Structures are given as structure tokens and as C-alpha cells.
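Before relying on records like the one below, remember that each one covers exactly one chain. Contacts with other chains, cofactors or solvent are not represented anywhere in the record.
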Amino acid sequence: MSSIIEAAEFVSRWPGQGIKFPEFDPKTSQFSDDLAKVVEGYETIKYLEVARPAVFDLSELTPENAEDKLRAFAALIALQGSPETGGLSALAKAKNIALESAARHVANTAGPMVRYAIEQLTPEFEQDARTYVECVAALPDDFTAETLLAAGTDVVTAYQRAKAVVIQLDRVSSFIAATSTLPTHSVTIEPVIRILRPASITELAKLDAAHATPANATLRALNPIYWTAAREGIEFGINTLREAAALRKRLETVTPQQIPGVATLR
């Protein structure tokens, strides 16, 4: 699958994630291509059947029309192909070219609408993040399956709730990662802060450490990065890939003088 087809497939799945296709660009408040219609055009071409091989119809063949029938069949083979000719038919090649063109139209139209899509995901995301933080607060600082069970029913229930919410948080994080297939969003995929907003280099370092440090299976089920954010009071928030990259760059370029309590030699 080409990258542009992958992008169109990603956008076509937005409604299944609770994202309504906008009919205008919310960034400029101007009407633009209707994304729903653009995707519909792409899917129409995608599901167009062009693989039927040409079959010579003998039912109406007569000595008088045999040559005309044969010529018509030759034209059909040239367009549609036959099992004997092999390879892609002209019709199949045309479909592939049209599909690539339609996919590019989908990707170009959807690119400026990513922030609009994020806004639709945000209310449920914020509720899930609050639930996760509340559940993590009820858990012991350092736990394994054994210590979790020993802590009692309420703690186990909180763990199970947090575990279920992680699936929803991961879904949003994966959505942001997939936007890398769209024009203007094709940057390096940030693995740590797609849905987190650390406020300092110290907070970012803790998240990076959680990402890099192996964890036991019980903690892995809660996602060590989210766990660290919840325990450290780091904000949950959905970033575009460019916003995440800019946030990381800003935090990593902090100078020692900007860190409270750090003295420097002059």
C-alpha cells in the first residue's frame, strides 16, 4: 500500500472514531472541499470492480457478424484484459492512477482539519484522563501483581478501571501518530508526549525515562508513561505531531539559568 493510499484509508476511518467530517476549514472559517464527499469519491473508485476478465459471447455469433464480434472482443480485451493476457489491464491501471489521485485529494483536504478532529476527540479524552489519574492515585507507588492483590478489592478495582481507560488513551495517541501520513503533518513521530504536556525539562526527562525503562507486566498494562504523568501531576492533552515536536524542542533547549535552583559558573 502506498503512503498516500494509507493516508486516505486513515482519514476514511475517522467517523468510526467518532469524528464528524467538517464541511469547512475551521482554521480559516471558510468553506472548502467537503471532506465527506472527497472520501466518498475515493471509496467509489476503491470499490469499483475492474477485475472481471473479458469473456467472448458465442450466443449471438453468426457467420455474418463474426468479424465484428471478434473486433469488439479484441477492444474489450485491450481495455479489460483476459486470463490469457495476464498482468494489469488498461482498466485496472486506470483505476490505480485514479485511486492515487483521489487519495491525494483526501489527504490534502484532511490535513488542515486535524486540529478540528482533535477538538472532537477532546471531551471524551479529558474525561478518560481524569478517570485514569483518579484510579492511579488509589494505587500503591510500587506494585506488582502480588502486592496489588494484597492491597484489597478497592485497589484492584481501581487498577482494572485504569487498565480499561489506557485502551482509550492509546487510541487517541495512535490517531495522532497516524496523522504523520498527511501533508503538513509528516514529521518524526513523537513517541512520548503525543497526549501529554510536560511543563519543564525535568518532567520531560521523567517521561522519557518511563518510556526507556523496562517495567513489570502489571505496570506495563497501565502504560508507564501515563503512569508517570499521573503520579507527577503532568498535564494530559492532545498535541498535533508538530506541537509535540515543538514542545520537546523548547523544553530540551532550556538553559541552566532557566532551571530553578541551578547555579552556574561565570
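The radius of gyration is 27 Å.
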